[in-house]
């Protein structure tokens, strides 16, 4: 195999596809954003449940004296 054939083989690789990289980044960003949003919705639900129970009187934040 000559030097010319080796060089020709190396020039066949064109590098990463910009469109693919953008799509991968967009997909990963949307997945991460969705998981973060679900985490916040869960915290919001738990906080609402806490204040609802507090308002009903089912729970208290004051420690009772013995």
From TrEMBL:
Gene Ontology cellular component list: mitochondrial inner membrane
Keywords on record: Membrane, Mitochondrion, Mitochondrion inner membrane, Transmembrane, Transmembrane helix
Intracellular or extracellular location(s): Mitochondrion inner membrane
Keyword Mitochondrion applies: yes
Membrane spanning stretches: none
Cited InterPro entries: COX5C (IPR008432)
Keyword presence, Transcription: no
Family under the similarity heading: Belongs to the cytochrome c oxidase subunit 5C family.
Function: This protein is one of the nuclear-coded polypeptide chains of cytochrome c oxidase, the terminal oxidase in mitochondrial electron transport.
Protein's name according to its UniProt entry: Cytochrome c oxidase subunit Vc
């Amino acid at each position: 195999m000559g030097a010319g054939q080796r060089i020709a083989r190396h020039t066949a690789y064109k590098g990463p596809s910009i469109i693919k990289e953008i799509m991968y980044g967009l997909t990963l960003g949307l997945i991460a954003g969705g998981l973060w949003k679900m985490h916040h919705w869960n915290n919001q639900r738990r906080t609402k449940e806490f204040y609802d129970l507090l308002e009903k009187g089912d729970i208290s934040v004051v420690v009772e004296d013995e």
